[in-house]
Prior knowledge:
Elements: E1 8-11, H1 17-26, E2 33-34, H2 38-44, E3 51-55, H3 56-59, H4 64-72, E4 82-87, H5 95-100, E5 110-115, H6 119-162, H7 167-236, H8 243-267, E6 276-279, H9 280-292, E7 299-304, E8 311-314, H10 316-332, E9 338-345, E10 361-368, H11 398-408, E11 412-418, E12 422-432, H12 444-453, E13 460-464, H13 468-480, E14 484-488, H14 491-500, E15 505-509, H15 517-527, E16 532-537, E17 551-555, H16 560-572
Parallel strand pairs: 1-2, 1-3, 3-4, 4-5, 7-9, 13-14, 13-15, 15-16, 16-17
Antiparallel strand pairs: 6-8, 8-12, 9-10, 10-12, 11-12
Helix pairs in contact: 6-7, 7-8, 7-13, 9-10, 10-11, 12-16, 14-15
Amino acid sequence: MVPFSRQVIVLAPYGRDAAILTDILGTLDIDPVVCPTSQWLLEQLHEASGAVLLTDEALASIDLAALEKRLDAQPPWSDIPFIVLARRSRADSSIQQRLAARLPKRMTNVVYIERPMSALVLVSAIEAALTGRRRQFQIRDELVAVAATNDRLRQAEARLARSHEELEHVVAARTAELERTNNELRHEARERQRAEEALTQAQKMEAVGRLTGGIAHDFNNLLMSLSANLELANRQLDAGHPAHGFVANALGATQRGTRLASQLLAFSRTQKLTLQPVCVDQLIQELATLARHSLDATQEMRFVPGAPGAYLMADPNQLELAILNLVSNGRDAMPKGGRITISTYAPRDNDLPADLTPGDYIELCVSDTGVGIAPTLVNQVFDPFFTTKPVGKGTGLGLSQVWGITHQCGGAVKVRSTPGEGTAFCLFFPVAAAPESTEAVHPATLIAAKAMQGVGSGIKVLLVDDDDNVRDSLVAGLESENFSVTEASSGVRGLELMTLARPDVLLVDYSMPNMNGADLARAAQKLHPELQVLVITGYTDTAALDGISNARVLHKPFALTRLNDMILAMVSGAAQGV
């Protein structure tokens, strides 16, 4: 059989791409096969290949039919991983969507990395691809071993059928072998049962995720109605009225509710990793309330901030999920009660994991006073599906997810554990510079439009939302700023109104029965191709809007002033600045 090889085939025929990629691969002790042409790549691609690394420009030159034929020739266990380096264009909403439609159906094991990218991201992707490829070869070997075992069983049965007169001798001679075979079969049955139980748990978590997403969407609608009505009430109060303080407190509560809904939505979606500067102490402070709710009365949690004002580079949603996973692990490790401590440490040179490149890192530790981890198991805790918990207590994916998130962010994880005393998981993330202010700066044209038009004077808005409370609040808010509003409670009714008169802006809810916001927007733009569309939604996944021109998305809940500005910007052609 062909052995596993860490060979990486590189196709990057333009510029210095091939030389740069060769240098990076050299740091991984990989001897790349650099192909000057796509035909060369097809000749080099075979069963022993470890992975293929190519640029999107190179992808355009490949004979896709020949590539698909080559991939179809792979054995069933083989699925060669491809890593595609691609640049995002202004028209791109998703690099994966743009490129995936061009790829052969057999080319399914593909990772897309946006250029420019860091060497750490590329190295992590290459190592992950080679790890997956090595597992394919392991599965091949396991399949061969099972086939050999079955063949031995058939041979034993044939010998027994031919040799009735020597039955006692044959049974005595084969007892030990049959026992070993039975042990293997029992082991395989246990592994199959464990996989089935893990699949059942994953399906349950997927269902819970969908339910959580729906709840968060409804919660965002409630918060939208509350915040809009609070804004309207605030406008009716005289300056200096004592109720202004109460309204401000209530608006602050809706903002905290918005963060809670965002955290719920993080559990219900699979999202692309988006690295950005994160103020770690602030994030943990905001997350602490949700984390404490998962503990019982005998357990306590405290936060020891040690990196005030410091920023690290991570995906904030995924970082929150990693912290909650570690808190959940600590909780389950303390059935008789105890304390979970979340600590942060400013950059320091000592105590860094060996696999980190030199630099400044912020350390985030989650420790517990639970039962601890046996020394023989510490090196296995990050393996997918590895768990010591009974069914219903975990899928074995939580810590592997923590490991993956941390390494994708360019960091590393260390584990310290003493049986009977507790465990500490310490995550190291690269330090990031503080982000610039993200306050919206209105373009001069928008400011002039607001001054000259009396905000929304003369702008016709068709509002379509099936939630009566949200719709009434938005109508009141828009009309108070002199927008001319026509409303509809369904997509079908909205389309009927669209045939009677063309609005300046279609303001439509994303999630509605029968005809959702995306369907209505497409139908409306068939009637009026230049129609501006503003979609409001309580969901985070709005992939159905891809391909709709002149469309913007505004996530609920939002301030009425924000809505006014977006409509003005869209009408005045200055939406890029809002």
